[in-house]
Amino acid sequence: MRDKRSVTMDMFVDQDALSTHQWMNLVVNKNFPFMAVDDGVVRSAIKYNSMNSRTLKARMVATVELVEPCLQEEFKGEKFALVFDGVTDGCEHSLAVFVATRKGIRFLTLSSFVEEKSMTADEHIRFLDMVLNQYKLEANNLIAIVCDNMETNKAISRRIDAPMIGCAAHRFNLAVKEALLKENGCKLKPVPMHELRWSGLHRMMKRYMQFHPYLHLFDRDREVDRYLPSDASQDNARRFPIVDFLPTPSEHCAIVDLLEDMNILEFSTRRLQEADLTLVTVRDIFDEVAVEFPELEGRLKMDAQIVESCDFEAGVVKIMKGQEHSLTSREKKSVSRLHCPPLESEADECPGRHITSETNSEPRPKRRRTTQEFQNAVTGRAVAREKSRSKYMDLSWIPATSVEVERLFAKMKCMLGYLRKSMSKKTLEVILFLRMNWDLVTNEITTKAVRNAREEDIVDEEECDEIE
């Protein structure tokens, strides 16, 4: 009797392409170094077919070239928003670009500006224009740009005539740092403190509250540390009795009050980091924070000085709330690019049909409703009718923050460990591109990439032999 074998999809896929896909998965998603691909011990421990790192890199580049047309087809005819942010590592400044559509958000590219003069608004605009051409994104479909509230980004918004949505998380951190921490947190802030992140202060106060029940044990501890190292500096904290550092009762009360405020701000910050955040939710958070902290109202209000396109943001919020009737003339002009084209079926229908069918769709209630219930029902119908007949497109997909780019930079920092310090910029961009768009890397694309990259591998090897 023959042994029964379970039928799997691996039987119908080219084994070379399958091994390539699995090796790429290790390198892209598991931070597997390329040097391990050439290691004989690693090859013997893994069931994939062996291949050298040069071949794998060539196939990864070919995969990127095949994924880009898929993105072009996905973006075709879609309204979009550009999401970008920069990071400086040493003397090098990098710019990462995402594009957001109603289908989701996609990573496009990562650029490096080596020279300081290349960090101007003109260079950024030139680079963004190159990205639009590469992915065949039409400029007339650009709705807005989403970025930090920096002067360079504001200049970009004015020069390309596109509304700018300032990152809500960046704006909130600036407001908290400037309005609250300078007044209450100077004595309590950690050293050193990040320019925009105040979570260290919150964690430090929470840790103090955990230690507070045991601090009374040190009320009479006036001696220095008995096990003080001989090479300790003169300002070492262990040279002083711990009782000198204990907060007084009034200082303890101030810490407790500040910690309660920081808990509210910490919740707001975490909410601003979520992926499904919309501009309406941001406005709700800012309004509630302004109620609790009136000193932040000037920095979080709709027309704050830091906001570049306040009319556009206010118009989007009103549209998403169903308050189109309250749009001002300036807001209507700023959101004119958000009109959705009318459908032919809607244009041919009679305006009264929806009202008649809507009225007869619900059965008569068993009891007579109260006045308040009747009013709520009428208001609910009006809101539903206004939403169904809105002349503006659905705006819930527009990002309110650029935290997606910050997450990319965090992943990039984890990728560039001590085993990848010598990685080239091109290889880094290839890995990031495949990692962020891994759902498009199918076995079919990998098979085509293997065929397209084989000739390139042979040419590269022959050139290397001639050089040697």
Automatic annotation (TrEMBL):
Residues 350-364 have a biased composition (Basic and acidic residues). InterPro entries: RNaseH-like_sf (IPR012337). Residues 328-378 are annotated as: Disordered. It comes from the Eukaryota. Transmembrane segments: none annotated. PANTHER family: BED-TYPE DOMAIN-CONTAINING PROTEIN. This is HAT C-terminal dimerisation domain-containing protein. It comes from Phytophthora nicotianae P1976.
